[in-house]
Write a structure and sequence with these properties.
This protein is α/β, with parallel strands linked by helices. The protein has helices at about 20-35, 80-85, 140-145, 175-180, 210-225, 275-280, 285-290, 295-300, 305-310; strands at about 5-10, 40-45, 70, 90-100, 105-110, 115-120, 155-160, 160-165, 185-190, 225-230, 235, 240, 245-250, 255, 265-270. It has 2 domains: about 5-290, Nitrilase/N-carbamoyl-D-aminoacid amidohydrolase (4-Layer Sandwich), CATH 3.60.110.10; about 290-320, no CATH class. The structure holds 4-methylsulfanyl-2-ureido-butyric acid. 4-methylsulfanyl-2-ureido-butyric acid (CDT) binds near residues 127, 169, 194 and 198.
Length: about 325
């Protein structure tokens, strides 16, 4: 047995004007509660220190600065690291990062029980749009406010296992999980902010919870890993964001799930040895994968015509006369 007790710390809304210190105090309170429930690791959502600011269009770059961290820990976030050390609990935190060279990233870190940062990830799949689109009920300007992550999908040895991280929209893409799975990830941590209403495709709205669960369950099963998905939920500044935080096992089953749209701890003890049964049988990658047949996965970004596909992967043209 290699048990890791993980607490998915779903958050309710954070208002635009909520001071950083108040949010940090709220997170520290959740760390204390998670510790009381035996957690080794608490997982906070994407952009957990502020409201989900990409819903607004800002013309001036300077208007953005209040949402970003220039240092981690910084003066206002130091209490999280102190609490980790004092309580002996690790944490995963999503936040907006303003890097030293001025690049803005949507970032998550993994901090161990001694308060040391042991992993960092910058979001790779940035959804939404770059320009103001006033026809929308609200904006989703991640493509404007963040650069695509430049650290790849990495794993980190911590908490007695191998931990991977992804952020929100990354969870919808099978490539995310597979690249982590190919490095032996045993637990994948994913924070999210998902408005229930998707202005370009409102017909998907009623399926938000279904899509949320199937992608994380499939990612877990197909890559023999636990997946911990954590929402910032509820009606935040007039936008309804889904909850549905969950922990999925390598079996593909959801083993714990949130029932509110507010601050809520979803706790499960995950035996990382459960990954082995899947990794050594049906998903023994080294025996069963056929990467030679997957050329299109890295050979093109968008869908291609069958003829273009044959140029990328000549095997596809073999039956042509
Ligand atoms: N934060 C984030 O990545 N949210 C997206 C919203 C979808 S579309 C614009 C998500 O995939 O949940």
């Amino acid at each position: 047995m290699r048990p890791v007790t993980v607490a998915a710390a779903q958050l309710g809304p954070i208002a635009l004007e909520t001071p950083r210190a108040a949010t940090v105090a709220r997170l520290v309170g959740l760390m204390e509660r998670a510790k009381a429930q035996g957690a080794d690791l608490i997982v906070f959502p994407e952009l957990a220190l502020t409201t989900f600011f990409p819903r607004w269009y800002y013309e001036q770059e300077a208007d953005l600065d209040r949402f970003y961290e220039r240092a981690m820990p910084g003066p206002e976030t130091q209490p999280l690291f102190d609490a980790a050390r004092d309580l002996s609990i690790g944490f995963h935190l999503g936040y907006a990062e303003l890097a030293a060279d001025g690049t803005r990233f949507n970032t998550a870190i993994l901090v161990d029980k001694s308060g040391e940062t042991v992993g960092k990830y910058r979001k790779i799949h940035l959804p939404g749009h770059r320009e103001h689109e006033p026809w929308r009920a609200f904006q989703h300007l991640e493509k404007r406010y963040f650069a695509p992550g430049d650290l790849g999908f990495r794993v980190f040895d911590a908490f007695g296992g191998r931990i991977g991280m992804a952020i929100c929209n990354d969870r919808r893409w099978p490539e995310t999980y597979r690249v982590l799975g190919l490095q032996g990830a045993e637990m994948i941590l994913i924070g999210y902010n998902t408005p229930i209403h998707n202005p370009p495709a409102p017909e998907h709205d009623r399926l938000s919870w279904h899509h949320n669960a199937i992608v994380m369950q499939a990612g877990a099963y197909q890559n023999a890993a636990f997946v911990v998905g954590v929402a910032k939920a509820g009606v935040e500044e007039g936008v309804h964001q889904m909850g549905g935080s969950l922990i999925a096992a390598p079996t593909g089953e959801t083993i714990a799930q949130a029932v509110t749209e507010d601050d809520e701890l979803v706790v499960a003890t995950c035996d990382l040895d459960l990954c082995r049964s899947y990794r050594e049988s049906v998903f023994a990658f080294e025996r069963h994968r056929e990467p030679g047949a997957y050329a299109l996965i890295t050979g093109t970004k968008g869908a291609v015509t069958p003829d273009e596909a044959k140029r990328i992967d000549p095997a596809l043209g073999k039956l042509d006369t």
